[in-house]
Design goal:
The protein is mostly helical. Helices cover 68% and strands 0% of the residues.
């Protein structure tokens, strides 16, 4: 069984990969932005790692205390999406028995969330105060929940791709992102470039819900056009370092319009986290 020490290491490494990978529009070692720094993201990973991997915490507690630690350390929302995606994976890793696939155990975790989990997560979301959250007539995070966490995520799934993962057993990640990562890693032999390939692949397939909560579909077609160009170039090169000037240009254009594909970045981190967890489990 995987240990907390191994999970902490995998989580921190996945979060470090997030800032080392040149994902246009996101904060990275190449370019910061959105009034956040690389150090904010690194510190967020450091302070949230123990809470999100605490075996004694329920799923909801893992999420709340990881968000609380982050908020107290950096004072802004750097990793809510990462935490929401990674906490169920940690829960599944602790419950995983030999011979059982992580995805099968994850499904059991997601099918058995509680109203109490939802209470903790609603508190966490309110504390993180993510941009463009809006409100819901069915089950708003400012109200006491009357449904389980997964049921609440189902209500939000039509406008949030992270919520959708709770209702599809992380379909985007297991059916596409992990395969894309492994293909790119074999090709480039580099974790950061494999993560970039996941990011561009996901954003080429699905509009980013963080962007669309903020702007609607105003920039959806434009973002798609830019990212498909990058994705095609990445798929057709043997030397991704040659694409750095292109990535700088797209990153500049995105940030000039305050476009941050944060949901896609969070899905990328969760993908890398799964890869690293499974490496430790072997």
């Amino acid at each position: 069984m995987i240990t907390q020490t191994q999970l902490i290491k995998a989580y921190k490494q996945a979060c470090m990969c997030d800032v080392q990978a040149f994902k246009p529009g996101n904060v990275s070692v190449f370019n910061e932005g959105h009034e956040m720094t690389v150090d904010d993201f690194i510190l967020s990973a450091e302070v949230s790692a123990v809470a999100i991997t605490n075996k004694r915490f329920s799923l909801g507690e893992k999420i709340y205390y990881a968000v609380k630690a982050t908020r107290e350390a950096v004072g802004c929302n750097t990793n809510l999406g990462i935490i929401l995606l990674c906490a169920p994976l940690v829960q599944a890793a602790y419950q995983q028995q030999k011979g059982l696939a992580l995805r099968n155990v994850l499904q059991q975790v997601l099918e058995n969330t509680s109203i109490k989990d939802a209470e903790w997560v609603f508190k966490a979301i309110s504390l993180a105060a993510p941009g463009g959250l809006g409100s819901s007539k069915q089950q708003d995070v400012s109200d006491a929940p009357f449904v389980s966490l997964t049921e609440a995520m189902e209500i939000a799934s039509d406008r949030d791709r992270i919520a959708m993962q709770y209702t599809t057993n992380y379909k985007d990640i297991f059916d596409f992102a992990i395969l894309r990562y492994n293909t790119a890693f074999v090709k480039f032999e580099n974790q950061a470039w494999a993560a970039v390939s996941v990011f561009t692949g996901l954003l080429s397939k699905y509009p980013d819900s963080h962007i669309e909560r903020k702007y609607g579909d105003k920039y959806s077609g434009w973002v798609l056009k830019q990212i498909i160009t990058v994705d095609d170039a990445l798929l057709n090169t043997q030397d991704p370092e040659q694409l750095v000037p292109m990535l700088h240009e797209v990153d500049r254009m995105f940030k000039a319009k305050s476009i941050n594909p944060g949901t896609t970045a969070d899905l990328t981190v969760a993908t890398v986290f799964i890869i690293l967890m499974e490496a430790f489990s072997v």
